[in-house]
Amino acid sequence: MRCFAAVEISEQVRDSIRELQRTLPGQGLRPVSPANLHFTMKFFGECTEKDVDNISQALAHIAQKHGPFTAVVKGIGTFPTPAFIKVVWIGCSELLPLMTVVDTAFALSYPAEKPVPHLTLCRVGTGADYESIRQFVKAHEGYEAGFMNVSEFKLKSSTLTSRGPVYQDVAVFRLSL
What we know:
The chain is an alpha+beta fold. It is built from four helices and ten strands, in the order E-H-E-E-H-E-E-E-H-E-H-E-E-E. A hairpin with a 2-residue loop joins strand 9 and strand 10 (164-174). The longest helix is centred in the first third of the chain and has 16 residues, at 49-64.
């Protein structure tokens, strides 16, 4: 199964992001379904049951060493660059320390990444008006979707379907320091 570690968002933040998505410019954009909005901390890819057990043990250990915290979801950006946009996202800088710990813990088994705490608002496809997207990002660069209490993170599975990904919780890890 395809797996990743994620932080879910609050309903208040989800509602705010849903409103923001309604203002996205024009054709060629594929907004992420509100039900699928989350912050990915680490993507593990295809995992065996043994991999899932090992990942779960490591994530449980990480959760025991971190306490709950409050985070603000704000700041619009793009990947990979403003000149060539494939993803429009909103950030959450308070997630960076936890994401960095998770990335470091799995550096020997999974490719190390430079964590960028972000939630994908939409994917950009063919026919998109890149100038309108850049104007949208500039107009909303300081957008604040709200605060959320981060008291847990999850190991989730992802099944790809013709109608988009379907996510399921595999395990929940409560921050308990």
